[in-house]
Every structure is written in structure tokens, then in C-alpha cells.
Amino acid sequence: LRPRHAARRGGFKSGKSPAGRRMGEIRMPPSAPQGRTLNRTNNNDLDNTRLVGVGREASYTSQILPWVSNKIKTSKYTAVNFVPRNLFEQLHKFGNVYFLILSAMMYLGEHTTLFIGTIKSFSTFGTLVLMMAITAGVALVDDRRRHAADLETNRQKTNQVCDPQSEQPNLKAKAWEEVKVGDVLLIKDGEEFPADIVPVYCSGDEGSCYVSTANLDGETNLKLKGAPDASSKFFSDPGDAERMKTPQQIDRAIAKKLQKFANFGAKVVAEAPRASIHDFQGSVEIGGAVEPLESKHLLLRGTVLRNTAFCIGVVVYTGAQTRMVMNSRPAPLKLSNLERITNNTMLVVLVAQGILALVSDLVYMATQSFYLKAWYLSPPDLLLPDAIGYWLTFFVLYSNMMPISLYPTMEWCNYWQTYFIRNDRRMYYKDTSMPAGVRASNLCQELGQVSYIFSDKTGTLTQNIMELKRVFIAGHFYGVMDQEINGKQTPQIKGFNGVEEMKKARANKTAAESIDKFLEVLAVAHTVMVSEGAGGEPKYEAESPDESALVDGTARAGWTLKDRIRDKVYVEVDVPNRKESLTYTVHAVNAFDSTRKRQSVVVEREGKYFLFVKGADNVMIDRASKKDIVLEEALKTFANQGLRTLLIGRRELPASEAKAWKTKYEAAAKSLGDRAGELAAAAEGIEKNLEIAGATAIEDKLQDDVPKTIEMLRKAGINLWVLTGDKLETARNIGFSSKVLDESMTIVEVDRPPEADGDKIRDELTSGRTKFGSLSRDLRAIMVTGPALEHIFSDASNKAEFLDLATSCSIVIACRVSPLQKAQMVRLVRENVKPTPVTLSVGDGANDVPMIQEAQVGVGIAGREGRQAVNNSDFSIGQFAYLQRLLLVHGRWNYRRACKFTLFTFWRNALQVLCIFYYTFVSGFSGTCLFEDWLRLSFNFLCSFPIMATGCFDQDVPDEAVLLHPGLYEVGRLSTDLSPMNMGRALVSAFTHSAIVLFFASLSFGSLDILDAGDYYTFGTTIFTILIVDISCRVAMLNHTHNRFTVGAILVSFVLYAIFLVVYPCTRLFTDLLAPNMYMTPYKMSLTPTFWLCCLAVPTVSLTIDATVLILERSCWKKQGELARLKAAAKSHECTHKLCVAAPGEYPGIEVNCFSQQELRGWQFETSLIFVRAISFGLGVMLLVAGAYALMQSESVEQIRLHYDGIADESVPWGTRPDEIIMETESPRQRSFNVTFKRTMQPPILVYFAVGPFYQSYNDYLTSQVPMELMGKNVSDGLRRMKCRSEDVRTRNGEDIVPCGIMATTVFNDTFHFNNVEVDTNHDIAWESDIERYRNPDDYPHREHTKWLYQLYPDTIHRRLGVKDPRFVEWMRPAATPHLKKRLGWIKSEIKKGTTVEVDIDKNFDVKSFGGYKALVFTELKSLGGRNNGLGIALLCGGFLTALLGLGMILLQYFKTEKSGEEQQQLLPSWARVEPTSS
Q1: Which helix (H) or strand (E) holds 602?
Q2: Closest C-alpha to 616, from 638, 597, 640
Q3: I need a surface site. Which of 13, 346, 544, 1131 has the fewest CB within 10 A?
């Protein structure tokens, strides 16, 4: 949680508490705090004040309600709520909700007849649970850290004064969580306040103390606080300060003060709890006298006591009612642009998934009659109408279109992108030992898309090291800038260097008096305290660096602040002709705030009263006694030099006026109502008729390399808006010195003149547009003031006109703006510029937090105003100059990486789903998935490794190149990588790859099938493996940079897949439990040469097409800046010892090595290189040779096909000659056929039967079996009913069919008898691994009331073999396509030409009812199978296309007209041209 702004500066900053906890991370407890809270409906509500008794008045505290516990709880989870709460949080993600709903749908499809569920619910739900469990684990670990931090904080000890009203009060240690309102605590130097307390005594001078508020507001300057006068006087003793030097003296002093509590009583009235850390109202009553309390009397939780021995105070607010916790608020949820696009893409993918399902549904409904008339199919009766039910079936089938792995992939890549940013030594600020920080890892990619930067000036562009450089007194300048004057460099003098000039000027008495009047105001009008430094020198403790600079400069000029004790200020004057010590009594301090813009003090010296004032020029001039034209010109001079100015005024007050005013002031100070308003009104009454004594000019130097950084950002096309509190002239000068502005620009100024209204502002805007005319955007700049913005934001038409004018400029500078106006400027751009740009705000102070939180990306700079901006930012850096590397290098890399893995992930899943979609057409539209469930489940996991390496390590451009050509940043700024066009291209590419897979799978299937690898499980594994190879090769091509991790990730993917194939499908233990038919499929697949040829051909052809598209695009230079990128990145860049190695301790807190600096040894692999073109051509030639060989081998194979039943044989392979077909379709049921061989056949000769169209891959057919029953196990009747749902496949005439199922009861039972040739029907028919798996029951064949296979198929299944009959086992391995080829046997002798074989065929298997065919085939078998020209044709087509494209790319490079260097440069935009440099 991050701080909410309270009044004035608001919020708090983070430091380290003594317990090591970052206090800025404390937030409101998520549940109601312990104890009773004050509500707004009773007499003790939060709108009322509270009464707290101290000492003898302690009984008053007990008369009110119990207070809120002081226990802090920042953790979210408990043992009871962890699961439901984390689940609730995670279900806010669209993807998680989608997959949860999908899992429920899958379960319904599996276990009901609502629709057909072909995807096992566990596959999706298990993956979802795993992903959510990992996320929950990370959240739990993080929350346990918060638990530990809470425990550490709550158990810290503080000292409580026990029984303060007794005669002998004592101290005891008390845990913070036990502290309650009314407790009296003793806090020692260096200790943190455990609650908000009102001090009754502080050991500092006159009851004062110093506190560090860095934990709250981030300001590093110590604040002066103190106890009320009455209580301080009660406890104080003369010489207290001198008696508290040593620890022993301090302990004695504490004991003495505690003894005084016996006679002390006070009633503290405090306002209701509120968030403001700078305001407090209350009163304390001691001995009947009431004294008002203000902000200096409230010591806040989280602040630390400094430079003060001890402090005693009473607790008034605890726990959730302390200022610190009330200022806590949740950090704004920032969703990156990439995440938004990804979410929108998911919706598009969801629609695409629905469309694919609709297409499948419509085609099925059009062809449904065919499947309904097939006697062997029994589609289930759905509860839903078929049109809806089957749409749901297909929608679930295509569910992998939505990538479930995208979220963890993104988190993984974000983690490493964050790591590289944090450890980049080029963004390590050595002065403060501060590395870059990341607090929002999901915004790493957003850094590469920034279009608008909103920057603070002071402390962001400048160093926030204030030095008094010049003053203007009575018409004369004193002091010079550190710059060349008259050709000479002035010495670099720290602080004010006009002392010698002043000494010379004092020769004139009038000038001396003017100088002393001026210096007197600076020496007295402040709240600076003097302490002793480490070396014994005076140390100024100021609330702002400006005040410290002024007091230091004044001391250099001879007016030295020596001490401040209560209302006394001691000043030593040591100037020519004057040495004296002066004592001033401060009667009132009118504090500076953003509304008054001035500070004044009323003091008394030697009986005379004076009003000393310093403030901003615009408010001081209005209160001056006369107008000074010379002074105004001097202010312009200071502004032109970029200096911060203050006017110094004074007035001697008559005693009567001073006393009368003091009465009003004291009355206002005691007010319990609007005290701040009354004090401001009182100050307004005296701050008039001022004598302007002079002006100060403070320098805040630019940080290193700010001009260069701004120039680079502008060249990158980023709009820079500088939002500052300086006046217009100062901001203008800083603009030129920092290269925000340059002399070629036309600058329009929009200011609010006196009595201006909305119409006049509109006229100025219109005038500005006219002034710009037709100037290009780079030459336009606009400067606008805070007062003008008040009018602009109050009028909708003015706001629209201003935005239109501002966005037409490359630079906008807003001056005199408040923190709220800064946030309004950011919101103006975010909400009104279309398309919505990515905005970045950068600042260093608490006043910059609103705009940091308003922008999509907030960057905090750890400056001298504390860590408030850092703690509320998404990224933190030590210097503004690091912004160019953060954006141009890391941002651009991360954006391109993220776009790559996002597009690739959608492309990858679309490719897989399209393959499943195509297979739907050959599986009867039954919802059968091409891939077995566990195989499909591994897809996202296996394919994520290569692209995760790309998302972490890819560098399309070395960092030196992008810094040389900052215009390359536009790729992210314009969101070109993840544009709708690129997403469309990715979809087209997925269709292209899937079409190529379909092409090769279709034409090579005949070869796979005849080589016994054409079953559903092996074919699915083959296609899956081809996809793995194709996807991994595409990742390799997408990578611009290859190193050991990117190459290793691809190898890991292959190795894990190989291990998966060995452990799962090749291990009986797993297959018997999960998918028995998957057993040994990888072994069969790997024995098929066709498989290896397809693994080579598919990636070669598809990636050659991808490469050609990229090369043609780049050759035409359609991509802006691509030439510059290629020239810069073509050379390999290697890690060197100099870049990767740092001296021990040189960069504490970060890792410096080749890995962390992203300087791993690697090489660039560009598709534009001749190597890629040559290898494409070479692979094309290889495919041509392989295709020619496959075609020649196919033509050399002899075959003969006897088509003996049904329609024409649709499975005739390519290349079959007419004389190889014997058509006998109208034969009787039993007949002898004479098959004459017209050519000699060499053994081995395969004899197989072909049947079709017969859909063994139809879902109901495929799943209608009990695998355990086939393995000889006795199974329950319930399991048989679930698996074999139709009664006629479970029982026959009252007897149980064993094994049951559609597949087992529809065995092809035509019989063949070969009379004059020996056919081996017992060996190498079915897979030996399948025969090994199948077993008959132990009581086979003697079990009663059982119908065995041999009884169903007496002429086909041998009684002795049962389920181990090779022909049955062969039938039970389902074919992948409707055209079945099942082996009958082998002829192992030569059949000579003219030989006639007599075959007796008994036709028992009906195919005519569904329009099928049957054929008996004799064929030779060679390495690539039998007669099938499809494989050869596919390889020839692929080889021809690949070789042609490769040759075309080579010729394109060779014959391309070489242009001169100047002409090549002209092809590029101006920012990409290489200009000569001096070094």
C-alpha cells in the first residue's frame, strides 16, 4: 500500500525502522482493527475531539470508549481465509475464470449426455490448479514475509512510565501492540515513536526535540518539535542541557523527571483522528490554564527522535487511527498496455474459437445423416438440441486456442526483465550506492511504449543541491555564476562567492546599511536550528535546502546564526567596521505554505519590533510599499540564468502595532476551530507596506548528462512535458540549458494576466495556434503557468483547445503548478489523447507523487527530498540520465520480447487447434481430438521453454546501437509489434504452417499407414512431434540473438519431450493407468523413415516462407529504420572481461557478471544474411532429392488390388495403375477369386484388407472399450456400463460379451483362404507390444453366462488365442482415418509374373448399408512403404518451393542495385542516419 496525500505535502516516505521494516509499506488493516473503533453515529464519533488524562488526571481517559488497538496488520491471509480469499483474487483474471468454466463444461460433457465431452476435464482443471497453486504459493510466501514484518513491528519494545500518578513511577518494557491511548511513554534518542503522542517534556533546549520524518514525508531535514510551554516548564530544571552529556547523566535525569509525575496532572484535548500529518489542533489544561496545541506538539508514529536525549509523552492515537496508517492507501492498480491488448486478444481468440466450433457444427449438421445410418456407430442422444450440443462439443475441443500458459510465461519473463533492470550497473548511482529499482514487474514492457514524459524539475532535472549564488541589494549584484566570464573560467566556489564584492561595497555607508538590512532578515527570518557537526563545526538543521543555503550564505557574508533557544535567536555579526552579538526575541512565526508562498517573523531587538519577510516575487511585490523597476529587471536576469529567486522584505513596527497584532496572533493560535485560517488572516494583516531589502538567487545545478538525455528522448519521438513550481522565466532558462528547448523552436507562452477570464485565455490559445502556423511539430513548444491552467481546467472548451495545441508541440513546460495540477496534466493526456498513449511521470519529491501515481508508468528518483517518490513509483533510478537507458534499452528490449512471446504463444496454440480442426473432418465430426489427452496436455509446457528464453534474453539491437539511433524506439511507441496487422500476420502464419502440416500429413499418410504407423495414436503422436519441431525451429528463427540460454532452452524442450515419450508412452506402468493404446507409439513412429522426412520437410518449407516474407519486407525498406538496425546488429557482439567484471565491492547490492549485464557470449542470426538464403536453397535441394527418391521407390513397388465388395475403392494410393486393380463388386457372399500377378513381386509381400469409409476414430467408437478387460482383469458392471453404454455391445441373448464395446463387437469378420500360396497370418500382423498387453481372463473360456470373442466370430478369432489373436489385436488399434488398412499376413516367397492365386472370400462384414467398400491388396514393402506417390510428390513440391524461394532470395541480394552511401542514408529517417562525430 502506498501513502495517500494529506494536506500540504501529504503522504509519507519510507525509511528503515529499527526493526528493519520499511514503514512506508504499512497500510490500513484489511479487517476491522482490534478493540472498538469510534464510529460516526454516537457522541464519541470521529467528528468529535477526545480527552486524554495524564498523571493525576489519568482517570479521565477511562471514561471514554476503548481505543483502537495499536497492533498493525499488513498481511492479507490467515489459516482460515487463505484458500477462499486467494481463490477469489485469482478468479478476477479472465483466463482463470475461462479455464475454470471450461473445466466444468468438460466434466459435464464427460459425465452427462448434455453434450459430447471428448477432452478429459482433469487435463485442463489439473493444469489450472497447478498454475493457480504456483501463484498462490508466491502470494503465500510474500504474505508470510508481511506476517513476519508485522510480528517484528508489533513486538518491538518501548518504555512505558508505570503508575505516573504514584510517588515512585517506574519504567517497564511494553510491546508496541500493547500500547493504548493514555499510556505515558519514554522515547530515547534514535528510537521510533510507536504511536502518535503529545510530549509533556523533551530534553532539548526549552523543551524542544528533533525528529526525523523521513518515514512519513520523505524529507531528510530534521523537524523541530517540542512540548507545550506549561508542561515543559513544570519538568524543566536550570542547566538540564549541561547535565545530559553522558548515558549516566541521562539516566539520572530520567529518574528525576519521573519523580515529578507524582505532582503532575494534565488533560489533553485532541482532535478526532485524521490523515493530515502537517496539521493538528488540540489543547492541554494544566493547573486550570489552557494552552493550545499545534502540529509541533504531535510526535507521529514512524518518526524517529534525533539529537535529543529523551522525550516523555502521552499516547493520543494508536493503530489504525495514527497519522501514518491513515495516510496509507492501496497503490493504484496499473494494467500495462500489453496486458490490455492481451486481454482484448483473448476475447478475439474466444470469438475465433466459437467460429471454428460453429463451422464444425454446421458441417456436421449437414452430414449428420451419413453417420446416423452407419450400423456400427451409435451417436448418443443429447439432452440439448444437436446444433447446440455439438457446438459445445467443438467449442470445448478447440479450448486450447486460449493459451493457458501465457500468464506463467509472462510472469517468468517479467521476473527476469526485472532482474536485469535491477542489476544494470550502467544505472547504478555510486554516490548513494543506489541501483535501479522495480516495484511493478508487469510494467517492464510499458517502458518501451512511452509517448509522453511528465517531469518535475527540481531534484529531477536538477541536483536539488541549493547554493546561494547571487544577491541583488539596492541596485547592485553580488556574486557570480560558475561560468566563463571574459574568456576565463571562474573558480568553482561552493556557496556564495560575492563576499569580497560586499566588503568593497561597504566603503559606502549607505550601501553598507542596505547590505546589513538585507543580511539581517536572512539571518533571523527562518526556523533553522544549530547543532554540532561531527567535527565540532556548526551544523544547520533546516526544514528545506533553500533555507539552509540562505543561512549558510549569510554566514559567509558575516551574519552568522549562532544558536536558537526557544524564542531567542543569537546572531554574531562580523563585517568590516562592525563586530557584535545580537539577540532577537521571536514573538511570532507566520509559516510558509503553498498558498501564502512566503514566510515572516515578528521579532524584537533592543526594544524595537521588526517584521522580516521572505517569499516569492509575485506575492512580495503586491505587498511592497513601492514599485521597483530595477528590482524587477534584476529578477528577470536571475531567471534568465536559471536561478531560484526570493524577495526579502522588512518593516519596523511601532510597539503598539506589534503588541496589538501579537494579541490577535495569540488568539488565533489558541483557536480550536479553523486555527490555520485565522493564523493566515492574522499574518495577512501585518505583511504589508514592506520595504524590499533585496533578492536572493539560489542555484540548483542540472544533474549530469541531463541535456544529452533529453536530446535522446526527443530523438526517440517522446514528448516531454516539464511541470515545475518555478516561475516562467526561470523555467524557460532551465529549458534552454537542459536542451528541453532550443533556439530553432517557436515558443508560445500562455499566462494569466491580471483580471484574466476564460475568454482571454482562449484568445491566447488561438493566438498561439496562429503563431505556430505550418511549423513542424519538432519546432513547436508551449509554456503555460499554473494560474492559466486554473482557467483552462475550469472550462471544457478551453481544456480541449489547450490539449489540441499542446499535443501539436514536442515540448510543453508548465510553471508555477501545484501537485494537483501536475496530476491533472497527466490525466488530461491519458483520458483525452487518442489512441491512448503510454504516459510516464518522473519526480523526486512527495509533491510529485500525485502525477507519479496518475501516469501509466511512475519513475521515482531518490533525491534529497527523501524517498517518497521512490516508494510510490513503479521504477526507481538514481539520476534522470538513467532514464534513457531505462527506456531506450531495457524498455525497448522488454517490449519487443514481450510482444514476441505473446504473439508466439497465440500463434502456437492457434497452430495446434487448427490441426485439431482439420482432423475433425476425418473423424466424423464426433469431437475426437487429434492428440491423446496427456500428449495434448504437455503441449503448452514443452513449447514454453524456447519462447521463455526469447522473452528473457533476445536482443534485436545491441544497446550501443539503439543509443546511437534513438529513433528505433518508435517500434514500441507506435505499438507496431503487437499491432492488429501483426496479429493478423501471426494468424495467417498459423494457417500457413497448419496447411503445410496438413499437406504433408495427407500425402504421406499412405506411407505411414502401410508401415504400421497409421493408427490414431501413432499418427497423432507423429503430428504432435512435427509441431514440436516446427515450433522450436520458428523460435530459433524469431530470436535475433542466440546465446547458450536460448539454444539451451530449445534443446531442453526437445530433451524433455524425448524423456516424456520414453517415460510415458514407452512405460507400461503409466500407459496401463492412463492410455493403454499409447504404449510403444514413439517406438513405432521412430522406425518409420517417413516420419523423419516430414520432421525435416515441414519446418523447412514453412520457415522458408516466413523468412522470405521478412526478407522481402526488409529489402523494400518498408520498416522504418531497419537498415540502421541491421547495420548495427549484424556483427556478433561478445561479452568481454571489461564489460562483465567489476572490482569487489564496486557495486554493492547488485550482481555484476555477463549474465546480469546481458552481455553473454552470443551471436546475431539475421534472416537477411546470405547464410539463411543459402541454407534455404540447400534444404530445398535436399527435399527435391528425397522426393525424387521416394517417387522412384514408389513407382518400383508392385501391387495388385482386388476390390471385391461395395463402391469404388476410395483408398487407392497415388500412382496406382489401372491394370493393378481388379473390380469384382457384384460378387455373391461366398466366392473364389483368381488373382493373376502381371509382374513379378519380391518378398516380403504384404497382404492386407482395406475397408472404408469406416470411422474407427469416431469418438463413441474409439472410447467404447474397457482397457482393463482387454488385459484380463475382472471389472465391475458399473464400469462396463459407463464405457460400453449401448446394451447390444455389452450383452447378447442374456450373456455378457467379454470384452465389451463397439470396437470389439464390430470386428471385420470376412474370411480369406489362399489356396496356392502360403500366407503367414500369425507373425508381424499386430504390434507385438499390443499382443503382450492383451490377456484372456483366468477363467477363460469356462466362465458361465459369457459370450467370448471366438463365439461371436468363430471363423475369425481362434478359441485358443481369444483376445491375443493377432487379427483381433490389429483391429483393436484404431485407424487414424476412415480408410482402414489392416494386415492379414505375409508372403515370404517370390511370386512370379503370370502366377494366379486363388482366394476364397466369405463376405460377412456389411459395408453396402453405409456406402462403403472392401478390398484385398497384395503389395511389396520397401523402406518408404508400398505404392504411394503422395510422399514423393509432397517432398518434391516442398523442395521445389523451398529451393525456388531460397534461390530467389539469393538473386534478390545479388542483383539488388547497390546505392552510394549518401543514397543509402537518404532511405532512412533523419534520426537513423549516421552522422560524423568528433570522437
Answers
A1: strand 598-605
A2: 597
A3: 1131
